[in-house]
Amino acid sequence: MNVHVARPAAKQLSYQLYARVLHPELFDTSAAHVIERAEYVLDVRICEAGHVVQLHRNGDVTSEINVDGGIELPKRRRCFSVKLNTGQDISVRPYPDVSFQASTQIESLDDEVFERLTAEFRSDARRATLFHAFGSRNRMRPEPLSLLFADCSPRTVVIHAFHTFPDDLAVIRTQSLYEF
Predict the structure, then answer these.
(1) Domain hosting residue 60, numbered range
(2) What's the structural domain count of the chain?
């Protein structure tokens, strides 16, 4: 019998952006949602290590991912790859008419604050664009949660993502902005 690990360690994750489509079979998707607008299609997915966001616009695809740093992904048309073990501010132009900015943050918390924050995230689940609670490996800790909030307008897309890592008592937060 295979033992399924819900999440890799928070500090071994990387955050990457590609100016291309990444095939869905590269990631174990736990939840997915598609937002269709006249100007673009936004495909958001929650996976074990965090999320995959693919923005389809005018024949171009931009793929933003949180992934286990040990997973080998293609290097072709990768705009950047940064470790999520520290905070980062990123700005890149994957296509001439698309500007991308992101901010990443990892927070290590004490038990009480982590549990309170997890409860707040759980209460925010009904407002989230996408939410998933993973099975817990430790009955003494809350289950890992992922929430994505997408704010979509004709000229911008803002994604707020929150991922909890109970084994590490850590929360990873990313905010990304796509401007056309």
Answers:
(1) 10-179
(2) 1
